[in-house]
Amino acid sequence: MAPYFSALYLEGLLLGIGLFAAPGPKDTLVIRQGVSRGPIWGVVAICVVSDMLLIAMGITGLGSLLDSRPKLVALLLLSGAAYLLLFGGQRLLACLRDQSMPATQVGHSQRGLLRAAMVLGFANPYAWLDTVVLIGSIGAAKPAGQQVLFATGAMTASLVWFVVLALGCQRLTGLFRTRAVWRWLDAGVAVLMVYLAGMLITDSLDVFQVVLEGG
Q: How many independent structural domains does the chain possess?
């Protein structure tokens, strides 16, 4: 029985790591805070808790509900693409204006940072695709007695990933002492967001094609 339960936990853990390790908006926020030595653990906590709540929502049925409505999923994909393009555009604009290097952290900016983490955690369509739609629909399809352990594995993956990412980025502080390096980072983030948006648009077109063929 123990190996059986371990396999379920490991399945959720590996799936979560595979999804969370793909860089996204939340990851770039953690990276920027880590290399700038700014307040980071509040951001990490929000990222992890948001993933946990969204996974729980998906496992309890929202993921299957979305999976059975391909048009809604396609719209979610397109909204996710639009969000990523906006996020990437902001970083590109900061790069072009030489505003990439973070300013000194103060109280109000820290509150703004936590608000940004909340938006990226809960109102980010890209995060919903990973947690609610993908992990949630897979977990919801499992028998009721297996769902909790599978979800726990996926939630652990989020915790491990963001803690490791934060600690790793803090070690790179020495590389980010110049404005030029920060501009290169923002340029890379902008390119990555455009690439991810392109993938979401392609996926949405595939979903719409399936809907049209089925209709």
A: 1
